[in-house]
Design a protein that fits this description.
The structure is a single chain. By secondary structure, the protein is mostly helical. The protein has a domain of 57 residues. It is built from 2 helices and no strands. The longest helix is centred in the first third of the chain and has 34 residues. The mean pLDDT is 81.
Length: 96
């Protein structure tokens, strides 16, 4: 490598290093500002930002927590005699 490529590498390395610490500083400043805010008075005040949207038109009349689809797996009687999956015809070209 020549001196120019080393210099360009170092410039980008220092720029990335500086940007990383600037981002960390800004993030921690935002966290500390959020921690300094006064606490909410009630749970309802805290959850105002998470208001549940209106239900889908097809979901009108369905109560919250009601089961919509029930799946129960039933064992089927198979004609398998314990020999597993055996192909009906051997593979063409298998030499059998």
């Amino acid at each position: 490598m020549n001196d120019l490529s080393v210099f360009i590498y170092l410039v980008f390395f220092v720029a990335l290093f500086g940007a990383t610490f600037a981002f960390m500083f800004k993030s921690m400043t935002a966290v500390f500002d959020e921690m300094d805010r006064s606490p909410t008075k009630s749970y309802a005040d805290a959850m105002k930002a998470y208001k549940v949207p209106a239900p889908h038109p097809e979901m009108e009349g369905v109560k919250y927590g009601e089961e919509l689809l029930v799946f129960s797996a039933e064992e089927e009687d198979e004609d398998d005699e314990g020999d597993g999956d055996v192909p009906a015809k051997p593979y063409v070209g298998s030499g059998i």
